[in-house]
Amino acid sequence: MTAQTTESRDLDPRAFRNALGGFATGVCVVTAEADDGERYGMTVNSFSSVSLDPPLVLFSVATAARGIEGWRAAEHYAVNVLAWNQQDISNRFARPLTDKWSGLQIDTGVTGAPLIPDALARFECRAEHQYAGGDHIIFVGRVVAFDTPRPGAEPLVFHGGRYRELTHEHDITVPADALWLHGW
């Protein structure tokens, strides 16, 4: 293991990104629709729960992202947690400057946000807060509606720069009183 201990401005950005890639994440597509009907959508892995009471979640978007002003103006959006077999959806929404919505059937949520069909879980949010976070904006949303995962559904996982699948060869039982593990 190579340790980086210099000032943050001296860190090697590629090495830092590789280190972050050691953290396995789920893959989400965040979606919104502007008042003029323009749809926004992007693949993110920067999704996290924030609070159970009130129900808050967050994601972040690069300040240099095309459409950042649309995201900043969005009053509602949805976080669609992708299932293991939705790699094509992830790839579609990860590409800039393409028509991400062409030919895609969508659902419309109670907030008006476009929803990805067959997503593992979907969280519809009302925009609550935005915070500057370096070269990103951190969006915190209050969950106003959600879908629970289908029984037996598996998530799309990203680790080390690649999609991965979960295996059940090494299932580990988490004690019921281990709520600290989830930060709750």
Give the tally of β-strands: 12
What CATH architecture would you give? Roll
Beta fraction of the residues? 35-45%
Q: Which structural class best describes the helix and strand composition? A: mainly beta
What would the CATH topology be?
A: Pnp Oxidase, Chain A
Pfam families: Flavin_Reduct (PF01613)
Protein name: Flavin reductase (DIM6/NTAB) family NADH-FMN oxidoreductase RutF
GO molecular function: FMN binding; riboflavin reductase (NADPH) activity
Family: Belongs to the non-flavoprotein flavin reductase family.
What descriptors fit this protein?
184 residues, mainly beta, Pnp Oxidase, Chain A, 7-stranded antiparallel sheet, 3-stranded antiparallel sheet, 3 helices, 12 strands, 36% strand, Split_barrel_FMN-bd, FMN binding, oxidoreductase, riboflavin reductase (NADPH) activity
Q: If you had to describe this structure to a student in words, what would you say it looks like?
A:
There is one protein chain. The protein is mainly β and 184 residues long. The protein has a single domain, classed as Pnp Oxidase, Chain A. The protein is built from three helices and twelve strands; from the N terminus they run H-E-E-E-E-E-H-E-H-E-E-E-E-E-E. It starts with 12 loop residues before the first helix and ends in a 20-residue tail after the last strand. The relative contact order is 0.19. One of its GO terms (molecular function) is FMN binding. Pfam families: Flavin_Reduct.
